[in-house]
## 1
Amino acid sequence: MSTTTARPARPAAQSRQRPPWVRAMRTTLWTNALPGLWFWGIALVPVGVATFAIDRVGEVELSIVQFVRYGAMWFPFSLAIVIAAMLLPVHVAHGITRRDFSVGSLAAGVLAGAGHAFVLTVLLELERLLYEAKGWPHVAGLDQDLDLAAGFLPTLGMLVPTFVGGQISGLLVGIAYYRFGGLRGTVALLLTLAPIYLVASAFAVGLWDSGLDLAPAASAALVVVGLVGGATAYHLIARRVPIRAVRS
Amino acid sequence: MSGYPVAARDLTVRFGATTALDGATFDLPAGGLHGLLGRNGSGKTTLLSTLAGLRTPSSGSVLVDGVDPFENARVMGGTGLVRESGDLLSDASVRSNLRLLGDIRSTWHADRADELVDLFRLDRRKAVSALSRGQRSALGAVVGLASRAPLTILDEVYLGMDAPTRQLFYDLLLADVIEHPRTVILSSHLIGEIEHLLERVVILHAGRVLLSDEVDALRAKGVTLTGAASAVAAAVDGLTVVATRDLGATRQVTVFDDLDDARLARARSAGVDLGAVPLQDLFIHLTGEESR
Amino acid sequence: MFEGREPIYVQIAEQVRAEVLSGVLGEEEQVMSTTQYATTYRINPATAAKAFAELVDEGVLYKRRGVGMFVAAGARGRLLAEHRARFFTEVLDPVLAQAAVLGITADQLARHIRGSAADSSAADSSTTDSATEPEGDAR
């Protein structure tokens, strides 16, 4: 016998009206943001504990927050790999075009990278205020390249492209593994990590010292080539990728 | 929304040296419940994946609602293919997968998905990878039905279900298609139970379309003739015989051909018994080793 | 259910006709909707719709907008007349042909028929009544 009764059609929810690329952006941003919040929650505990402990046993001589900057880029980078390698097939298999997924995930990557950069810059700023109040020197330390005296906007201006570069590289690494397989995906790392190299090289300080002391125009050019080139490569690789049936 | 029509024109898909589809051509009208029948490895999943825009043809084309589905946002968004794998996040819970689909799919009906999860008694907290094969099949059915896509394709979905669950699935599917008319394609190599549910069937064999017709028309072409060997032999003279079995002096022959009533009446009066051929048997005869 | 060689819609239509003939479905009585029929017997809705459309064309059923399908007035009588006519051509003629082959005379046949008719009317006198008079059921 029939197990159904006539059911009035439910009015379409808000999300249905959203264009597909916005839907893809929301799901991928969510995938990025939730572990990202955990990251900051978890990272702040050792920072606070370390600052407190060092103050107790000795003297605070350098910024503790600065050490989070590697994690704040590489952790979301690893999430971006997962997004491209695992969420792309699920999205396309359920009706989102590769083009819309690519645009949505790139937009989410930019937002996530910028968000992490913003949080880190704010934390550095707060730390600076604390250090000033306590009379501690807010510096990066001898072998560190971060110029903490640069101020809020220059620091943000350096961290945002760097972290966005991390996101784009992550998406590129993920899509290369998905499309070309393990061996070729690994060989391709030389190219798929290029956005990070290029953006980081643009700044004499930052994640590492490129040893290059570039004119501002040259730096900007490296950033643009790294980000736009990476995003374009990701879009082109994603655009025609066949979606295999995954074994679950 | 009454569903997308579907067509393939000389569709060929190659993977390196293997040819998965070899010039497949067929049409399915908009709306209705249709079957894609083929043995394992006959190219069913490749064909369906191409229809859903998950891959491109090597040559030839597919048309869904009159257009190439590949990267067509409207048609891809209106197509719901459930492959046996489910295309879900296997390490995530049933609940978060369904939530994700609600975010991804514009046609998703969350209320319906919830009801179906309850009807199939699925544990929402379990990871997809921790589900049994039957439960995973049921989850596939939930995804296919709740997607309510104008082209809903269920690839091998009910194979993992036990008998009572399959019956539940057929009932739910039928009721759903009646309430929300659309094009539904069920693919399988086992259709004994669903023969009467289907309007048209496409039979795929070794990457080629063997048959594409209304189920009723196929049934009308198939007949078994059982009787004295000589009488049966005379009755089937000139017809396409797909199977012959001898039991002593009695012979049973399965014929697949255009049959005229006069010939059948003559056979009957010569003492030959006529019987229907279930679609499943016809499929087995047509795709058996001898036809290759 | 639906084991025969005929298309399913033919079998469905035949089943409904048989129910009208036997009086299981009375005139002006509502029949199952296509949807109910499809879900009850697990058959393709389009197939069920085709069968019902054929029955409407034949005048066995008629549609009341927004309500459903009903057995037409006089449907049983018409079906009876048709089936009676077909009985002679489709059922009796082959029997007679076979009888001729076997050398059974018309006289022997008539005697046999009279004998079994007497048996069945003795067993249930109302059978022949209701078969000849459609209103017989109402009494």
## 2
Amino acid sequence: MTLAIDRNDPAIRAHADLYRREMAAKNRQTLIGVAIFAACVVVAGIGSEANPVKFFENVWRFPKYILDTMPTLRFATLGADLAEWFWGLKGWLKLLWQTVLIAYTGTIMGVVGGFLLCFVAAANLGKSGWLRFATKRYLEFCRTVPELVFALIFVIAFGLGPLPGVLAIAIHTMGAMGKLFSEVVENIDMKPVDGLTATGAGWWQVIRFAVVPQVLSNFASYSLLRFEINVRGASIMGFVGAGGIGQDLIEAIRKFYFTDVSAILLLIIVTVMLIDYGTERLRHSLISLEHGK
Amino acid sequence: MSLALSATDRAALIGRHKSAIDGSLQTRLTTVAVAAGLVGLFVYGLTTLEVSFWRVITGFGNLGTFVVLMLPPDPGTWARGMLFVKALFETIAIAFLGTILAAIIAFPLGFIAARNVIANKVVHFLARRSLDTVRGVDALIWALIWVNVVGLGPFAGMLAIMTSDIGAFGKLYSEAIEAADRKPVEGVTSMGGGKLHEIRFGMIPQVLPVIASQVLYYIESNTRSSTIIGIVGAGGIGLYLAETIRTLEWQQVSFLILLILAAVSAIDFISSKLRFAIIGKRAI
């Protein structure tokens, strides 16, 4: 027996035709998609004044800038060179600590706000339709307006210093956490809620004893993740005068104190990495705690 | 028989199951200690960050005045309104092109940083750490650096978004590739395919939907970050935002914020539609 196919069999021919037509339609669709995409790229290129010639003429400045920021370290005088590179270490560490504190207090305030609002915004617990709608729009507003814009406005309202930075981060965190938390709440098992409602518990009691135990570990994990993001955010708050290490950084960049730029950036990167690592460990232990139960 | 519990019965019941109701001493102590630590650090933060009661009160008073002054949103003149809309377009262009370029450039880097494509430990470590470093520097800082390279304007902003996203995308890609199923790759190998065939026919079909959905998500979030990149002179609406806030033109500020809100929610809408079209209703 042979497996050869008779190409002239009408059934097979109809099949092949159908296949060809389907493929042609699919190709056409892909082509249209690619054309739209290409048009978008061209329009965006014009809009952002992207200029390859200018780019290739000047791109050598980029590695040069990075190299300029590198300190001269000689093996023989390593200690002295390092001390010269990090000459402002004491002040920078202080500002770095302030940055972390700004992120921490902002995160706590935002998480508390998001926690209180998420139950109102969740579709499965929300009390009335319009209240839920208003809360959702409010949270959307809080997370869409960038932190730095809030910081700019708060700097004028509250004066220079870390306070506007804390508040800006708190508001943005509240918007982001409120949304994430309410999504977690919408995915809970509703049986404990029904059970408590059946015993005659009020809204707050239902939330305290049926909802919170289910969502707490998830909330903690999201908050830790957010804290790490906020440390990055707090490191640039100083650009607009809202406290933290950003003010020294932008001064160093603007005044071309090259080695200071690399020293401060290195400090920020190391701090962010350490916090990243620490929060990841904490989150993993939280998750294993949950699964271990 | 009545189902109601008398007070003495209730007390006896609670007494019998006291340990079950109260929970273990260790858990309670840990909870209290963690809560006390969190609150303690918070209070310490408030005191060292110069948060005084009166400052907060007067600040909120000022804020209330500003909000009143912001209403109704108004760009001032018609010409200025058009200028704002043009800046908004520039912002979206920066976000879009920056994300797309980053997605393309990070593609090979993602494969280099994936443990199952290049099994060399040193290469893996170096690739991951460099991506982390690039990612750890905020887009605003990259913008400051690129402004030194290509001059003021949206081009610098686009390059800044691109640079910081290369780090993020490289990491995401390499994780998607590491999570990919080995079986299609083994199938390609068994048919005599080379390393490039493995990647093209075994890996890419698996990771492409994940990558496409991530790119869409990043376009969305980069629209938000490119609105502020103008604060350091790298193009987009941020320049006007910073300028109008500093000159206390509150009606123009609220107009700009409204523009941003409208643009971001429009992009949210389009990208979620596209995402569902690409990956189906499956959530990633």
